[in-house]
Design a protein that fits this description.
Blueprint lengths: L4 H6 L21 H29 L3 H11 L5 E3 H7 L4 H13 L3 E5 L7 E5 L1 H21 L6 H15 L9
Helix pairs in contact: 2-6, 3-6
């Protein structure tokens, strides 16, 4: 059987896919134009983070998630944020964030300490060295983001892209994060 990606979205796989006697649930399969657009989004979701991660690693020895963590901390009051909040805004589990933090701590870019307001929580803190690493990484990162996304769209296209991305994100159930 020669299976094409388009078969998975246009309904060509439904033949024989259900046990005999059961009716498959009704599916509104993708049209050719919808499929083309969806596959473009899939390529964007796959290749854009990869390209950004590669640039950051090559130029700054930081991965994309590491950069995000440092950036979020840099914008927080006192360059401090609860680990649980940081996990939420970076879409990382506490376990994954803890492993990442351990690597960043070994490089003296961040540190952890109990939250003085509530010792049940741990605060993540951006160190001076971490702020310097972020400050040095930012120009190359912004130039790369600009070359990939910002400069290839008109201001109106960019505004629509942001609006449409927000509309899609608003439909994602994030309750299972962490």
């Amino acid at each position: 059987m020669n299976l094409l990606v388009s078969d998975c979205y246009r309904g060509a796989m439904t033949e024989g896919a259900q046990p005999s006697g059961e009716e498959p649930p009704p599916v509104k399969w993708l049209t050719g134009a919808e499929l083309d657009s969806w596959l473009s989004v899939v390529r964007l979701m796959t290749w854009l983070p990869w390209s950004i991660d590669q640039q950051l690693r090559r130029d700054s020895n930081l991965g994309m998630v590491e950069y995000q963590v440092l950036a979020m901390l840099s914008e927080s009051p006192g360059r401090t944020m609860r680990m649980s909040s940081l996990a939420e805004v970076t879409n990382a589990s506490l376990s994954r964030l803890s492993h990442l933090f351990k690597r960043l701590e070994q490089r003296d870019l961040v540190r952890r300490q109990p939250d003085p307001a509530d010792g049940r929580f741990t605060n993540a803190i951006l160190t001076d060295k971490g702020l310097l690493a972020l400050t040095e990484a930012a120009p190359g990162h912004v130039a790369h983001v600009r070359s990939l996304v910002i400069d290839v769209l008109s201001p109106e296209q960019l505004r629509r892209l942001g609006r449409d991305a927000d509309r899609i994100v608003s439909r994602i159930d994030t309750s299972g994060i962490s």
